[in-house]
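FAQ
Q: What does a multi-component entry look like?
A: The components come first, one per line:
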Amino acid sequence: MLLRHKKSSPRSDGLVLFEDVQDAMRGEKVLKKAGYAIKLVAPPPQLRRGCDLALGINLVERAGVERVLKDNEADYVEIVPVKPGSPPLLDIVSVTDFGRWLMVKAGNMKLSFAKESGIIVNTSGGGCPDIPYLHSELVGKRLDQAPRPRDIGFTLCALMLDRALEECLILNKEGGRQ
Amino acid sequence: MMLIAGTVPVKGLPLIEGRPVIEGENLVVDGYHIPCGQGTGAMISAALVTLGYLKLEAPQVVVAGDTGLGRGSRQIYEYLIGNVATISPEVMALHYCLPDMALMARLWESVRRCPRKVTMIADAGAMYAAKAAGLAPHFDIFTPDASEMAFLADPDATHPAYIAEHLFDTDVSQTPRLVAAAYRHKGAAMVLLVKGSTDYVVNEGDIVATVTEPNVPELEAIGGTGDTITGLVSALVYAGLEPHEAAIIAARSNRMAGQYAQATPATRVWQIISQFDAVFKQHLCQWSGVCCTKGGL
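Then the predicted structure of the entire assembly, as tokens:
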């Protein structure tokens, strides 16, 4: 169980959308129990998808929120930024070939691995506190044996690093070719 | 006094403060060992080495363990909110933390009560929080990378993962446009050091320098090499350089250290930091125009 300590009122820049009120109430219960500073709010009309209740969250905590909801089998529709029309999470990946190594960049996060061994040699980018932790947990491990950032991280930076790792796994399977 | 605050990836580490020393690949603060890897550890180490070379006192650091849950981040915010006016640092560099706009706004209110001007520098999560809270113009220096520059330029974004357009390093030609947008939307600090294949130094909206040499593209892959730039610029400002001058020298020093270390994507950031003394010895006098005597520049 994740434990958090609430000391400040949250600024909700993200919304968890639910199919119905019951799901929203259950989501609130499990997230509060996990220590997240969240609040029930009405979603803007443009974001309603059969729901009339949402949870306001700090969007940077999206990965942790998603995991708590899934671990507790709390159904939800999706997580979106508060501002209507805001773009979705970046889904652009680029690859740089450094000879013996490949660097994959997803959004602001980068992961590099050795082509021959599939060992992660570095991660870089990001600014949230789980990123240095993920760096220490991933570097030195083989791509297919490394923990997934989305499983042990908590923030949007972790989600982007997970996307980079996902791409690295595909590239490694293809023999390190771009 | 120069104050550095940020989280470190050490589970269970309480909030600690003190003057750090380097022991091998670690920092020691108040008896606790902190890895000199990506993040606040690299930033502190770079500042410490720079200040040591200049024969200035080590920075005071405030760190707490945080692996992403935010507890250590909140401890740091609360500590600074309660104590910064008493500490009254000349330079305060804020680094890795969970972005929290409400707490950053409270911290800024506390900084305003300091008896003297505090030079405010932010990178990483602290920069995200400052920009998202609308406080960017109150800061003296931000050190974003290229993708974070797109975040600063986007008036609606609260995190670099949600931006209207993405900037790859090959698109650095777009940086001037994003810089202009960031200042127009009040998403920029007084000085920006935009880190990338071309480093841009911006002073109050004007690009005053670009740094491209030596070209060491492998630095981008090495976790912590952006953090070392922030440590360098913070220390150089504390030593007396103007913020934009410090930014130019920091960018040059980091690149040169990468070249000295013969960096590859597998290089560790402490291997880069360990080259700073040699870089300073050979270039700092020429670059800064004023040479090291008995402390400071």
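Q: Is there any commentary attached?
A: Sometimes. For this entry: Chain A touches chain B through 59 residues (CB under 8 Å).
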